[in-house]
Amino acid sequence: MDGLMIFDPLFRVPLFNGLLLALVLSTVGAYLRLRDEWLAAFALAQVAAAGGVLALPLGVPVVVTAALAAGTVAVVYGFLERVNNNHYGVAILMGWSSAIILAANTHQGSVVVESLLRGQLYFSGVGHLIGAAALLMILLVSLPWLSRRIMITRFFPDHFSANRQASWPHQVGFGLIVVFAVVLGTLAMGALPAFALFFLPSWVAFVLVSGWRRALLLTGALAVIAYFVAFVLAIQFDQPFGPVLVLVLMALLPLRLLGRVG
After folding, report:
1. How far apart are CA 19 and CA 13, in angstroms?
2. CATH superfamily membership of 3-198
3. Domain parsing of the chain, residue ranges
4. Which of 63, 85, 139, 235 is the most buried (most CB within 10 A)?
5. Measured at the alpha carbon of residue 246, what is the angle toward residues 181 and 4, in degrees to the nearest 5?
6. Radius of gyration of the chain (CA)
7. pTM of the model
């Protein structure tokens, strides 16, 4: 297939959907890595997939039940004093097993689970684009406030309790942003490709540069470049987008051997 097909109107909306999501998911992933909770993205994606299957018997849109399931876990964890990857490991197991069991006992449930795991970026529409743009705006508005509180929590874990200040507002608020990002990414790209965007760009960027702002900028740049390369390659060679994106992102890993360059 001609690589110029990426400029065809058929692929225009999916292309921009993915570009926005690549930027947003990788940015949220950088904050998850700062909090040492990078496994949260995969855990919530599994829970969202399980919730998505419930849409069939309930007769409601998949995005509603997926968001409610993932949001419930995020809110519960947000009220815990300290959450780490062990908690999200439990959520992964719970989400995966629930999704498989629900799919096995729901008409066409396996089709929904498969689509959520693999993603259908080429079939994403204006609704996904509006959601991605809204999430980007939420990040731009809320992160200046959230970022400071997340930094304090990361480097001074007892700051809020010692000063008798509530930590749940930013914990729950950030958790809901993660849920929004996970659900959008899972619906459009699939659970694993979305997790790759949360996980890999920041892992590479954090060892290449010093300083939080530069790491954040490099994270977003790596994600967007990798996404665009994957999109072109997937169309050029008529391959499923999700696995191609994961492989392109994994091709960035040797950059970690360069160590810190700035």
Report:
1. 10
2. ABC transporter involved in vitamin B12 uptake, BtuC (1.10.3470.10)
3. 3-198
4. 235
5. 95
6. 18
7. 0.86
